[in-house]
Amino acid sequence: MSAIRGVKGMNDVLPDEMARWHALESAFRRKMHLASFGEVRTPLVESTSLFVRAIGEATDVVEKEMFTFSRHDEQMSLRPEGTAGAVRAYVEHGMQNKEPLTRWYYIGQMFRAERPQRGRYRQFWQAGAEIIGDPGPACDAEMIDTLVSFLDELQIPGIKVHINTIGGKETRQRYRDTVVAALTPKIDALSEDSKRRLTTNPLRILDSKNPADQEAVLSVPPITDVLAPEDAAHFDALKKHLEALGTPFVVDPKLVRGLDYYTRTLFEIKGAEEKLGAGSTLVGGGRYDGMLKDLGGPDVPAIGFAAGMERLLIASERDVPETRAQVFVLPLGEAGTRKGLVLSRALRNAGIAADLDGRGTSLKSLLRRANGQGARFAIVLGDSEVQSGNLQVKDLAAHEQHEVTEADLVAFIGAKLASGPAVLAEKGGAP
Ligand code: HAM
Q1: CA–CA separation, 258 and 255 (whole Å)
Q2: How far is CA 212 from CA 179, 194, 230, 255, in A?
Q3: Residue 423 has pLDDT above 60, yes or no
Q4: I want to staple 32 with a disulfide (CB 3.0 to 4.6 A). Which of 37, 101, 178, 285 is the partner?
Q5: How many other CB atoms sit within 10 Å of the CB of residue 5?
Q6: Region 26-49: what's the mean pLDDT?
Q7: Chain-centre distance of CA 95, in angstroms?
C-alpha cells in the first residue's frame, strides 16, 4: 500500500529544527513586548467575505490563492494573512472604546495556494504586528526601525529597507488613472497578466517582474506627480524620522505591494539575494487607514507588517544550539528499568532533563547513543547498582566517573550542572 503524503506545499517541522523556531519566536515576542505590543490570537478560518472586502477582489491572493470551503451555508476561507482577522477582532470587540491606541502582534500559520518553491509555501508562518489608532508617521518609522533591529538580532545579512507611498484613497484612485492612461497605448507590449490587470488592478503592473512590462512601465509618471500635499508631508516626515534613527532605507517608487488595502506608507525588507533569491521579501507591510471603516468599524488609521518565518529562518545566520537531555539513564535488565523509571522521574521533578532508554540493548550501543545525543551524564543501572544503591555516574564531558548513592543523585547532578561547564547538553556536543 502506498504511504500517504502531506499536502503539497505544507511542511512538517521536526524536533531537530525546533530549537531555531523557538529561538525565533522568543526573539520576536521579546521585541514586541519591549515595544508594548500585546499578543492576539484569531481563528485560522474567517468568513470569505472578510478577505474579499479587506484585501480586495482583484488581488492575486483573493482571486487565485485562497483555500475556500462551505459549511452550513456559510462560505469560509483559511486565512491568507493576519491583518484582516486582527482588524475584524478589533472592531468586533469594540477596542476603540477600550483604548485609544492598540498595539497587537501575532504568530501563526497562513494559507495561500501558490506554486511551492524554496521560501514559498501553501502553509507558511507569519510573525506580524498592527498598530491601530495612530496616524503616524512617527509610528511608521518606529515600526520599520524595530523590524531592522529584530532582523539584525537574527543575524540576517544584507538587510535592505524599501519604502514608498501610495497616498490616500483619492491619490490612489488618481494614480490608478495615471497608470492606465500611460499604459493603454502600450497594451500590446504588456504580458497577458498585465493586460488583464490594466482593467482589474493596474497598480500591480508597476512591480511586475516581466521584462516587457518593466520596459513599458518606464513611461509611467512617478506617484510624486499626483501625491496630495498631506500625503507628501507624511512621506517626508517618515523619511526624516528614519534618518534621525539612523535606519538606512531606499525609496522605491515601483513598490506597490499585492494587497489592495494600503494607503500612504508601504515598505518591504529584503535580505541578501544569495539566501533567498532576488525579489524574495522577508517582511512586507504598510498603512491601511481606510480598512477599519470599510469593515464597518470606526474611522481610525492603522499600520502593520508581517514577516515570513520560514524565510527568516533561511536567511538567519544565528547559531542556535539544540538542547537535549542532560542525563541519559541506561538500565540493563528489568530491575534496572524499574529503578530507571524512579530516578528519571526524580531528576525531571528537579528540573533536570533526563532521557530513559529502556529498550535493553547492549551497554555499548546505549553509551554510543548517549554520547551522540550530547548528554552530559550517563547512569548505567545494572543488577549490582540496583542492589547496592551505589550508582556509577559517567560525566561524559569531563571523562570522569563518580560513585554516588541513589539518595544523593539529584543533588550531585544539580550541583555539577550549576557549577558550569564541563559543557553541553547539545546534540553532538559531547566528545
Ligand atoms: P505579505 O507581503 O503578503 O503581507 O506577506 C508578508 C510576508 O509573508 C512576505 O514578505 C513573506 O515573507 C511571507 N509570505 C507571504 N507569502 C508566503 C508564502 N506563500 N510562503 C512563505 N512566506 C510567505 C501581508 O501578509 C500583510 N498582512 C502584512 C501587513 C500587516 N500589512 C499590514 N499589516
Answers
A1: 10
A2: 16, 10, 34, 18
A3: no
A4: 37
A5: 6
A6: 98
A7: 25
Q: Where are the beta strands (DSSP E) in 14-147?
A: 38-39, 45-47, 68-71, 74-78, 102-111, 123-132
Q: Flag whether pLDDT at 217 surpasses 50.
A: yes
CA 360, 364, 369, 374 dihedral sign is: positive
Q: Crossing angle for the helix pair 409-418 and 334-349, nearest 10 degrees? A: 50
User: Is residue 81 very low, low, confident or very high in pLDDT (cuts 50, 70, 90)?
Assistant: very high
Amino acid at 125: W
Nearest partner of 35 among 250, 305, 231, judged by Cα = 305
Identify which has the larger pLDDT, 305 or 359: 305
Query: Which residues on neighbouring strands pair with residue 251, listed in sequence order?
Result: 163
Concatenated DSSP letters for 321-338? PPB--SEEEEE-SHHHHH
Nearest residue by C-alpha to atom 32 in ligand 1: 304
Q: How far is the CA of 352 from the centre of ligand 1 (A)?
A: 40
DSSP state string for 414-428: HHHHHT--S---BTT
Q: Are 266 and 175 spatial neighbours (Cβ–Cβ below 8 Å)?
A: no
pTM: 0.92
The crossing angle, in degrees rounded to 10, of helices 83-92 and 48-55 is 110
Per-residue cell: 121: 509555501
Strands of 68-71's sheet in order across: 45-47, 74-78, 68-71
DSSP state of 359: S
CA of 22 to the centre of ligand 1 (A): 20
- What percentage of the chain exceeds 90 in pLDDT? 77
Strands (E), 156-290: 160-165, 250-251, 263-270, 281-287
Q: From ligand 1's centre to the CA of 140, what distance in Å?
A: 18
Closest C-alpha to 56, from 90, 24, 80: 80
Q: Which of 281, 282, 291 to mutate to test the pocket of ligand 1 (most atoms within 8 A of CB)?
A: 281
How does DSSP classify residue 279? Answer: T
In 316-408, alpha helices (H): 334-349, 363-373, 383-388
Residue 262 near residue 166 (C-beta atoms within 8 A): yes
Distance (Å, rounded) from C-alpha 372 to C-alpha 431? 9
